[in-house]
Amino acid sequence: MVHNDINVVSLAGGVGGAKLAFGLAKCLAPTDLTIIVNTGDDFKHFGLQISPDVDTVCYTLARLANPDTGWGLANETWQVLSALEKLAAPTWFQLGDKDLATHLERTRRLQQGDSLSEITQDFCKKWGVQCKVLPMSNDPVQTLVHTEDNEIISFQEYFVKRNFLPKVRKFEFAGIDQANPTPGLIESILAADLIIFCPSNPFVSIDPILEVRGVRAALENKVIIAVSPIVGGKALKGPAAKMFLELGINPSVMSIADHYKQILTGLVIDTKDADEISNDNHSRIIYYETNAIMKDEDDRIRLACEVIEFGKSILNGEVS
Amino acid sequence: MVHNDINVVSLAGGVGGAKLAFGLAKCLAPTDLTIIVNTGDDFKHFGLQISPDVDTVCYTLARLANPDTGWGLANETWQVLSALEKLAAPTWFQLGDKDLATHLERTRRLQQGDSLSEITQDFCKKWGVQCKVLPMSNDPVQTLVHTEDNEIISFQEYFVKRNFLPKVRKFEFAGIDQANPTPGLIESILAADLIIFCPSNPFVSIDPILEVRGVRAALENKVIIAVSPIVGGKALKGPAAKMFLELGINPSVMSIADHYKQILTGLVIDTKDADEISNDNHSRIIYYETNAIMKDEDDRIRLACEVIEFGKSILNGEVS
């Protein structure tokens, strides 16, 4: 399956991003793929350090993820959660028993002074993940959602506890100015032939990564392809379309193009959005239409390989 | 079963102490029993705040304890621990799934500003424990074991991780000078008719409690009965006898009497140690012989009721 001699850095958030990352890992040699993962969703819960997006990406790459939800582990058990329930403890965040071991060991190692990126690398080794997975920063960054009701809530509270019901007004990445990029992250981008934004939420998955110090500068002059997380005016998963609407923007592939317009080279969209392209009469973005929905592993691999081929054709000057 | 109109404060550590505490709870009205529990064994593990003795006492009182081990929960599962093992995380401390929920919720509530005693009280309410269980302090106290090899190790490392193999030289209760007694603790002692030291390790279970500020002063002029944790020269459980030997003291009921001689009124010993009493020709301690081994719940209740009767006979001046 590995047949591409091209070095790729991809940016990913949670479930949707992880699916494409899985595909990319099948289309590229492990040394040719670095996945930079959002950590703005990270939070402390019950004293444990939880990195939802990093875990989702790693579990998915390792084929350990729960195939029904996309997050958490397959064949999970819920002994701890049901005991927490009996104690009337908060159970809004679904802590599976096996998943809990990840959080416990991560927390232990962070407290003994290891960095999130070192720990992630070791976990990947144990789980058989061969490509490089880099949390965007080892320093704390907290995505805060400012709501229409002038509340400021953490992303997990917004997303999980409140089921993304509050209307968003803006996003804030607390700590981002003090957050250093993970060691090797900027170098990975600089060394990459192609940058791929996975079909993750632009506001809360990709933007935090772009805001990490040095990332935008490193991306200058790079060939960057995004895979649209919006298909047919809807988000494939999660609140992306709802967020666009609440921010007064029509959710469409054009709003994705517009969101990234300053840096994007190419945008992969679903064929059902092909008509939209005619609306773009000002950007230099190159479009590629395909079936952008990943229903199974074959879809992930097919889409990933298509995205890579699209990138290669741009790099080779075959499309413009 | 409840037939004693006497107010009791008992001091307890882990498994042995918890057994007698269970018996006392059956012999006394809930409002007539306060159990003060050692917290010197408390430690942080995987970022969680663990209070082994408090849990053992509460689980035992609630009839939730694992009957085979005396610690941990009955019908426990080990999903998290086996997942930790796969991550090559430390597994020397046996974290059961249900038990873990206790540590998680305790940690969460401590971090939100609740005190250990408040949390313990709420857990007791949920578990149906009616008597008052007071951790000795809400402030951190850490029992440190100084070994013959001049190591200084935490109690859990000594006791669990190293299976109490290191030879002890002395004990230190780090933080004890700054530790305040739990709110209500001194008042409980002052209001008590009778103080009972459960058959817990004198060095690492009872002594830490006695060293909490104000406890020794409150115990002055109180009728205090200890139940010997040494029977036939051996500790009923744990390293008490081994500790005595390593400190150059013959482990016997007389060494228990000697250890507490400045404050003790009465000592309950096993009949097989009856001959030892003749060795005591200098203290004013009153002895009571019985079957001091608690094999089942009936034993716990029988022994507890006997200890209370012994205490009453001292209070009534019937023995001296």
- By DSSP (H or I, 4+ residues per run), the number of helices of chain A equals 12
Adjacency order of strands in the biggest sheet of chain A: 5-2-1-9-10-13-14
CATH architecture of the domain at 8-43 and 134-146 and 174-315 in chain A: 3-Layer(aba) Sandwich
Overall mean pLDDT of chain A stands at 95
Assigned CATH superfamily of the domain at 8-43 and 134-146 and 174-315 in chain A: CofD-like domains
Instruction: Give Rg of chain A in angstroms.
Output: 19 Å
According to CATH, the fold-level topology of the domain at 8-43 and 134-146 and 174-315 in chain A is Rossmann fold
Low-confidence stretches of chain A: none
According to DSSP, the number of beta strands of chain A is 14
Tell me, what is the CATH class of the domain at 8-43 and 134-146 and 174-315 in chain A? Alpha Beta
Give the overall shape of chain A, derived from the CA principal axes: globular
Oligomer: homodimer
Helicity level of chain A: 25-40%
**What is the largest interface, and how many residues per chain?**
A-B, 28 and 29 residues
Briefly note the structural class of the backbone of chain A: alpha/beta
Which band does the percent of strand residues of chain A land in?
15-25%
Q: How would you sum up the major sheet of chain A?
A: 7 strands, parallel
What does this structure look like?
The structure is a homodimer of 320-residue chains. The first copy, chain A, is of the alpha/beta class and 320 residues long. Chain A has a domain at 8-43 and 134-146 and 174-315: Rossmann fold, CATH 3.40.50. The first copy, chain A, has twelve helices and 14 strands. The first copy, chain A, has helices at 15-27, 52-61, 79-86, 97-111, 116-127, 155-161, 185-191, 202-211, 215-219, 240-246, 253-259, 297-315, and strands at 8-12, 33-37, 43-45, 48-50, 132-135, 142-147, 152-154, 168-174, 194-197, 223-227, 230-231, 234-235, 266-270, 286-290. In chain A, strands 5-2-1-9-10-13-14 form a seven-stranded parallel sheet, with helices on both faces. A three-stranded antiparallel sheet of chain A has the order 7-6-8. Chain A has a two-stranded antiparallel ribbon with strand order 3-4. The longest helix of chain A is centred in the C-terminal third of the chain and has 19 residues, at 297-315. Chain A is globular, with a radius of gyration of 19 Å. The two termini of chain A are 28 Å apart. The interface between A and B is medium-sized, with 28 and 29 residues.
